[in-house]
Write a structure and sequence with these properties.
Shape: globular
Largest sheet: 7 strands, antiparallel
Order of helices and strands: HHEEHEEHHHEEEEEHEE
Number of helices: 7
Mean pLDDT: 75
Number of strands: 11
Strand content: 15-25%
Structural class: alpha+beta
Strand order of the largest sheet: 1-2-4-3-7-6-5
Radius of gyration: 25 Å
Length: 304
């Protein structure tokens, strides 16, 4: 009887030790996830900060720019609504495209839009360096400025317009419009909502950039002049950038980021994920310890 009681006592102590060890492991993993989540959020917030800085610069350029260079206007028309502002020292260049000649809204001037895009393209190199230093990011933020009606878009920095992908896409206005026209609904309420407060932003789910063929996040900011929506600025970055600050080896499993549809966006696991695999990914996560947290329009999940 005494031996049996002693055995039970030893087993009980062993179980308690295992429970304590498991709790410590879970606590360590939870802390590691929270630290890495903070690093992911740092990237998201830094990207938002850069978009806000760009939007402020665009507003200043919008008010100071004139009607545009007549030679630029003639070139734009002669090339069927397309013009390239070349890159150079301190300038990243830009591509301006006419997306639609029918949807142009009141107050939208092609001449003025060309002038604004040219001015910002000529000074964007120094601006990008300043922004990167301010938010401690070493990769440049690309993006575009688009009119409220999506009649014109200015893409900065200048994309590789000679690539086969770009050559095909430039001749496909519907494809361009479906990408650059996204997120432009309800601009008037958006403008009213941010009066007197911080510049509000819109996050768009990852989509394929038609000119490069790469998946990109977009963060939109409204440009207002005289309290009216004048344009929308979009900052673009690769979803993989969200993982830039994760510390290798700080967690024993995989780290995934999902969008609001629970579709995988990026992961520390090599390879790209398609929408059809999301169920499999969630099933695998469900069989393991899972931690989740909400990010702007997307979710981070760590599995162990």
């Amino acid at each position: 009887m005494g031996a049996a009681a002693l055995t039970l006592f030893i087993l009980f102590a062993f179980v308690l030790a295992l429970i304590g060890f498991a709790r410590e492991e879970l606590n360590d993993e939870r802390k590691a996830f929270q630290r890495n989540l903070g690093r992911v959020m740092d990237i998201a917030r830094a990207s938002e900060t850069r978009v806000r800085i760009v939007a402020t610069g665009i507003e200043a350029a919008w008010e100071s720019a004139g009607s545009g260079d007549e030679n630029d206007v003639r070139t734009f028309e002669a090339q069927g609504g397309r013009i390239v502002f070349p890159a150079g020292p301190g300038a990243r260049g830009a591509l301006v495209l006419r997306l639609s000649s029918i949807q142009r809204a009141d107050g939208e001037s092609e001449e003025h839009f060309l002038a604004v895009t040219k001015n910002t393209a000529g000074s964007s190199g120094n601006l990008v360096k300043t922004m990167n230093d301010a938010v401690d990011l070493r990769w440049g933020l690309g993006g575009y400025i688009v009119t409220p009606s999506a009649s014109m878009v200015g893409i900065n920095p200048l994309p590789d317009v000679l690539s086969p992908q770009a050559q095909r896409t430039i001749r496909d206005p519907l494809r361009l419009l479906s990408y650059y026209g996204t997120g432009l609904s309800n601009l008037a309420p958006w403008a009213i909502a941010q009066q007197g407060g911080a510049r509000s932003l819109r996050w768009l789910p990852p989509a394929i950039d038609p000119l490069s063929g790469r998946s990109k996040f977009r963060v939109l900011a409204l440009v207002k002049v005289n309290r009216r929506p004048s344009a929308v600025v979009a900052g673009e970055f690769s979803p993989e950038r969200l993982l830039d600050r994760l510390v290798p080896g700080s967690f024993p499993g995989a780290y995934w980021v999902f969008d609001e549809r629970t579709e995988p966006v990026t992961s520390t696991v090599s390879g790209r994920f398609g929408g059809g695999r999301s169920g499999t990914l969630w099933a695998v996560a469900g069989n393991r310890l899972r931690r989740r947290a909400t990010l702007p329009r997307h979710t981070a999940t760590a599995t162990y």
